[in-house]
Amino acid sequence: MPDENDFAVASEETAVLKGLTTAERSLFRSLQPSDTYDPPAWYTERWRQIAAIPAYAAFARRALETAAARMEAIHRGELPYVAEKAFTPDEVAVLGRAARTALARDEPWLPALLDRLLPAVAVAPTAAKTLPSQALLFELVRAGRDLPTPELVTAVRAARAATRHAGVPKQLDKNLKKVEAALVERVDVALRQPTLGFGPDGVLRRAVGPYEAVVTLADTAVLTWSKDGRPLRTLPAPARRDHPDAVKELRALVKRVDIQLGTLARALEAGWTADMIPPYGRWRAELAEHPVARAVVRRLVWEIEVAPGRWRAVLPEAEELPEAPEDAAVRLWHPLRSDPETVESWRALVTERRLRQPFKQAFREIYRLTPAEEETRDHSHRFAGHLVHYRRMFALFRARAWTSRLLGPWDSGDEDEACRTLGAGEWEVGFRHVLADWSDEDLVASTDRVCFRRRTAQGVRPVPLAEVPPLVLSEGLRDVDLFVGVTSIAADPDWREDGRRPYWESAGFGELNGTAQTRRDVLARILPMLRIADRCDLEDRCLVVRGELTTYRIHLGSANVRMAPDDAYLCVVPAARKTDGKVFLPFEDERLSLILSKAFLLADDAGITDDSILQQIRRAG
User: Fold this and answer.
1) Where does 192-339 have alpha helices with state H?
2) How far is CA 216 from the centre of its chain?
3) What integer pLDDT is reported at residue 38 of this predicted model?
4) What is residue 418's three-state secondary structure?
């Protein structure tokens, strides 16, 4: 238990607060929800206001440095160690406020301090599987959820690696997902990338005894081994036996790099509606030519303002960067800002070069205002009336940085509006949904309207859809389309005999949504390259596959299958058979992979051995 005289941050904070103005003190009094699972939208903005108070910012640094010094003293044995007693509850709360203040200011001294403090808090100075303060560890992680930085994520991962407590890693992993989801919304900070020892060519080489380990960055980080310049097929046993720590460190580096690349890709995609990219000189040095970031950045199409009002699109992986002023504007190319011919040319180039982009860009769906939405003015019913697997949709909310209350059979748990901020926090999109069936564990929800709101100093106000910037509108509606398309019960054969069958039929074989239309475009490009090309044709909504036994139509939205001659439904287990080798896809799409898997299976239906599938085909015949 720390002595109040040795570590008086709580009393010092009280003294600092007494010296503030009444208005400044009121900011702190409004922060009661700081321990909530999902802080309100105004929460981080309030911390930015607090961070602008010089006296409290100076105190925050003193408090965190004192905490780090105390932990170092405990680890040196200069202070006694008692598990979970390094800091009192009051001190944990004060240090959480200090951390949020420093994170909001993005203080240059903070990364080094976090590297000292977080791992030290996570592991006992003895061999015990305890912690000096689990409470402070998780309070600092919660601070990172509210105001994340890449350096904090790195420090938390170091703490996770250091701890010997059995339950802490799982909790840290759970919280890290929230921190990284929040990081992608703080684009100006998330783009900051460490080099991690990689050379300008995106390669890291390290001697491990007589062997050389090589980590190469392409779509992901790949670790290979060689000896005397000769590549080895696997990790050599002597290296694993004689240098286990080096091997472990290299494997951890590969995981860390993949996480870093994924975080950068999500940050760039999330920042699309804000155009928060540094000017050309910084973009080139810190992203396009950065040893690590280049693995993501060079596979994307960018627009550079080479002259006032004249933008040039460039794919760094395929061509040299253009000449442009150092302060020229840079932004991610978006198909919404291009004509169909230009979009077609980028899609053709990506396919021709077999380039898998970090996220869907060249093939990205676009959503423009419809006449029906002009009539409804302030909301859209474009995605209303669908039945979805609620738990799956809720998981997608989290993955796509939407906030929403968990619905269930309890008071006020039957409906909610999921929300996401866009355009650097200026815009908000809302998606209403209602529980339709909670009779068992597989909750079903019904989708409702989508609306947009604008955030101003005076508050949040609804806005007519016609006034929403086209890119913000398109990206907001695209997310909702994704939620519906991925989680609709139309792709679940268990619902075809249920009372929901009319919806299952209409959605499972109906008009294609934006995502499914993109699948059709991709299939049109890659089908000629497949060995089953002569057995396949594309219709408006389906991929038609001619087998030896009959002909099949695979819906491009749901991946449901119908058979000739009377459109009988064919239930195919997704894992029945994999596609023929590695089929190139320009983006990750599980439903498209499933469609191709079924196509390869059914094109060779004479070779099917699964009795359940064969019986269905024979009955149809």
Assistant:
1) 237-242, 244-270, 280-283, 294-297
2) 23
3) 55
4) strand
In Å, how far are 186, 189, 365, 472, 611 from 274, measured between CA atoms? 11, 14, 18, 9, 54
> Which CA distances in Å does 444 have to 415, 487, 488, 561?
12, 10, 9, 23
* Cβ(179)–Cβ(152) below 8 Å: yes
Write down the residue that tokens 């703080």 correspond to: 186
Q: What is the pTM of this model?
A: 0.81
**539-549 pLDDT, tens per residue?**
999 999 999 99
C-alpha separations of 177 from 190, 252, 272 in Å = 15, 18, 21
Alpha carbon distances (Å) from 298 to 175, 217, 264, 527, 555: 31, 12, 13, 27, 34
Q: How far apart are CA 145 and CA 100, in angstroms?
A: 10
Structure tokens at 583: 């089929």
Q: How far apart are CA 433 and CA 418, in angstroms?
A: 8
pLDDT digits (tens, 9 = 90+) for 3-50: 444 468 889 999 999 999 999 999 998 775 444 445 666 778 889 999
Mark 45-73 as b/e (b = at least 16 C-beta within 10 Å): ebbeebbebeebbebbbebbebbbebbee
Q: What are phi and psi of 487, to 5 degrees?
A: -110, 0
Q: Among candidates 490, 273, 470, 482, which has minimal Cα distance to 373?
A: 470
Question: Residue 193 corresponds to which tokens in the numbers above?
Answer: 């990338």
Alpha carbons within 13 A on the beta-carbon side of 508: 24
Note the Cα 572 to chain centre separation in Å. 30
3-state secondary structure of 414: coil
**Gap between the Cα atoms of 314 and 346, Å rounded:** 10
CA-based nearest residue to 569, from 557, 552, 556: 552
Cα-Cα-Cα-Cα dihedral sign, residues 596, 600, 605, 608: negative
User: Rounded distance, CA 338 to CA 95, Å?
Assistant: 49
Hey, which residues does 203 pair with through a beta bridge?
A: 216
Q: Which amino acid is at 16?
A: V
Band of residue 366 on the pLDDT scale cut at 50, 70, 90:
very high
**Torsion angles phi and psi, residue 498, rounded to 5:** -90, 175
Position 361 pLDDT exceeds 70? yes
pLDDT band at 519 (very low <50, low <70, confident <90, very high): very high
The CA distance from 128 to 282, in Å, is 47
Query: What does the alpha-carbon distance between residue 381 and residue 385 come to, in Å, rounded to a whole number?
Result: 8
Structure letter (DSSP) for residue 470: H
DSSP category for residue 535 = G
Amino acid letter for position 57: A
Q: In sequence order, what DSSP letters do the residues of 68-127 get, joined into one string?
A: HHHHHHHHHTSS---TT-SS-HHHHHHHHHHHHHHHHHT-TTHHHHHHHHHHHHHS-SSS
